[in-house]
Amino acid sequence: MDADTFLGRYDESKRLMSEGRRYLAAGVSSNARLTGKRPPLFFERGRGSELVDADGNRYLDFVMGMGPMILGHRPEAIETAIIDSFEIGQVFGGQSRLEAQLAEKIVQLVPCAELVRFTNTGTEADLLAVRLARAFTRRSKIIKFDGHYHGWADGLAVSIKPPFEQQESGNSVQPHPESLGMPPSTYEDLIVLPWNDLDAVEACLTSHGGDIAGVIMEPVMCNNGVITPLPGFLEKVRELCTGCGALLIFDEVITGFRLAPGGAQAKFGVTPDLAIFGKALAAGFPLGCVAGRAEVMDTLAHGVLHGGTYSGNVTGLCVGLATLYQTCSRGGKGLKDLEDRGNKLAERIAESLRRHGITAQIQGYGAHFGLFFVPSELRVRSYRDLRFADRDAGDEFVARLVDAGVRSTSRASFFLSTAHTDSDIAEAADAIDVVLADMARQR
Ligand SMILES: Cc1ncc(COP(=O)(O)O)c(C=O)c1O
Q1: Do 193 and 200 contact (CB within 8 A), yes or no?
Q2: What is the CA radius of gyration of the chain?
């Protein structure tokens, strides 16, 4: 379809953006919303799997708030939990019984969880996990992987999308700060390695193992498109960490309570020392946590500081309890159904790609998967491989999908929710098929 067909379709969003910029720094509340090729859309309302924007356009939504809306938009069970929570209160500067209740649920579900500490966001939980690892091991170095995201704070916002020219294959590279205003002193103890590269991890842990407090990673890399762990990678890193006394930290902010009730660690059968959760833990409410081995978490009672006026606030906990009930009770049937529907959509997209002769690769799982427009012989294994990806094709795919009323993330990945129905999947797959046919025709 001609680009002119869509002239005027987003005028109200554009107008709101330019008006908002007069009062709101850069027009947004998170820089992540500026990453697409187009100005961000403004949304009026959502319900279930659908969103309506300020121009009245309807979308089948596969962004789902970048992951948290695991039950879709405005799920009834959550609205009820919120209203009920107002009967209790909000923040006491003291304890409520809900904290231990939700912590107990997490301990039952998550393999590594012996003790839990609540935060408001994933970023805070990442910072706490790293502090715990350093305090427990009395070491300072942390290994992270390029392309992985662990929040926007100084100590970790490094090498998330480093320029490809700075990448040296196989070896650690200079940590690349992702923001102005980050003094090198804040990340000088980070070592950045390529993910899915056992040799690089083994070499680093063999030579510096005694200095390494922890190895932090997304067990499935979800923040530059979706890249899955190579068979044996997680297991071997677990073994190497145990061998040198470094803690293995899984950042499950995206995978947690999404890939399985016990997260990626349960799906892959690899238990880290610490894990970080957020997003799908509380269906759209700010709630995060660190969960892990008792002796590590117990340092919070022996000299490790963590605070937060809103940590453990009543609404967050009530929503967390209601969310886990919906997704993880009945043996995780909610998540299993969502996984099946996502697999169906991924299969339909793969079929369309084949039929229209477009080479692209789909990676991930039903609950969250993504496309890379890369040469067919390449299996994307780490951030560095993305230098071979056709970014323009990816951007075009995402933009055309939005024009067709289907919303993927700006990195061409899809978040499923329990609100997506079989007919949503069929409708989305048909729309994607038309987009891919158009793209093939115009090439
Ligand atoms: C893997 C991962 N870790 C941490 C974070 C940060 O979480 P939050 O945005 O709640 O601070 C995110 C957010 O997208 C994430 O994807």
Answers
A1: yes
A2: 22
Q: What fold does the segment set 76-328 form as a domain?
A: Aspartate Aminotransferase; domain 2 (3.40.640)
- Catalytic, out of 126, 251, 273, 424: 251
Q: Which whole number is the average pLDDT over 127-137?
A: 98
Q: What pTM does this model have? A: 0.97
Distance CA 135, CA 313 (A): 26
Whether 151 is in the pocket of ligand 1, judged by its Cβ within 6 Å, is: yes
Whole-number Å distance, alpha carbon 375 to ligand 1 midpoint, is 30
Is the distance from the beta carbon of residue 126 to the nearest atom of ligand 1 less than 6 Å?
Answer: yes
Q: Does 409 contact ligand 1 (Cβ within 6 A)? A: no
> Spelled out in words, what is the top-level CATH class assigned to the domain 3-74+332-442?
alpha beta
Interstrand relation of 413-415 and 368-372 (parallel, antiparallel or unpaired)? antiparallel
Ligand 1 atom closest to the CA of 123, numbered from 1 = 11
Q: Is 253 in the pocket of ligand 1 (CB under 6 A)?
A: yes
The identity of residue 106, as a single letter, is: I
Q: What is the DSSP letter of 286?
A: -
Count of CB atoms situated within 10 Å of the CB of 190: 19
What spacing in Å lies between the alpha carbon of 87 and ligand 1's midpoint? Answer: 30
Q: What is the pLDDT of residues 175-224, one digit of tens each?
A: 999 999 999 999 999 999 999 999 999 999 999 989 999 999 999 999 99
For atom 9 of ligand 1, the residue with the nearest CA is 122
Selection from 258, 167, 173, 161 nearest residue 219 by Cα: 258
Helices (H) and strands (E) in the chain, counts: 11, 14
Nearest of 221, 85, 29, 60 to residue 144 by alpha carbon: 221
Return the residue whose CA atom lies nearest to atom 13 of ligand 1.
Answer: 151
424 is catalytic: no
- Catalytic annotation on 149? yes
Tell me the three state secondary structure of residue 315. Answer: helix
Residue 43 CA to ligand 1 centre (angstroms): 22
Domain positions in the chain: 3-74+332-442, 76-328
Q: In whole angstroms, what is the distance from residue 443 CA to residue 432 CA?
A: 17
Residue 251 known to be catalytic = yes
Query: Residues 407-423: what's their mean pLDDT?
Result: 97
Judge contact between 431 and 58, C-beta under 8 A.
no
